[in-house]
Amino acid sequence: MIKLLSQTRIFIISLILSLFSSVAIAQTIRIATGEYPPFCSSSAKHYGFVSHVISEAFAREGHQVEFDFLPWKRALYQTSNGEYDATSWWVYSDERAAKFYYSDTVVTNSVHFFYVKAHNFDFDWKTLSDLDDYRLGVTRGYFYNEEFTQYREENTDRFDVVNSDEQSLKRMLLKRIDLFPVNVVVGLELLRTKFGPNVIHQITYHPRPLSSKDGFILFPKSQANSAQLSAIFNSGLKKLKADGSYERMQENLLSGYYSN
């Protein structure tokens, strides 16, 4: 009888500790992000494709998510200081890897050259030297890849720097530039939401990507529970992909479901 009572007491204590542990991590996950429609936007359905994936992945594990939209640099800085549980979404860099745990891949960022078909109907490229006869637009603050950055530094006179992707598309239509590298989904989204149907049919993109990089959720190493939260998210993301939900979200992304 004493042994039975002792075992029962141990079981009850273990159960209580387990419940307290679950409560400790069953918090609302606060994520800092920025405006990059249709991947993340305060005015998009589910706050955009990536935000939707994040919310559903955590939901599979019993957690809710709250997003704050900030300037990108501030989102990264405040998350590194532990003001947020995570920040979404970022490609890999050694500098960020020193301060954050990276999740599994959430999205792939494929950047292609957009151009006006009537202006450059025969455009083709295989190496950066094939771009020598073209005027190129880039968005201030964007990093495309190291090779393109070096090429730009060696050919600054042929580069037009503006503050937004939309501006470059407008300048391309006005023949101020010939080519403009942008995430293919973002480019199509801008054409769909910011320009008329007649413009959409004038512009296309080259099938060869300038860069293709995976995107991740970053969890700050400054916080004790970040590794655990990253593992929880990865588990939910795997479930999302296994049951077909992630693929359906991708189809919605391409169809314009997450448009503002």
TrEMBL record:
<protein>
    <submittedName>
        <fullName>Transporter substrate-binding domain-containing protein</fullName>
    </submittedName>
</protein>
<keyword id="KW-0732">Signal</keyword>
<dbReference type="Pfam" id="PF00497">
    <property type="entry name" value="SBP_bac_3"/>
</dbReference>
<comment type="similarity">
    <text>Belongs to the bacterial solute-binding protein 3 family.</text>
</comment>
<feature type="domain" description="Solute-binding protein family 3/N-terminal">
    <location>
        <begin position="28"/>
        <end position="256"/>
    </location>
</feature>
<dbReference type="InterPro" id="IPR001638">
    <property type="entry name" value="Solute-binding_3/MltF_N"/>
</dbReference>
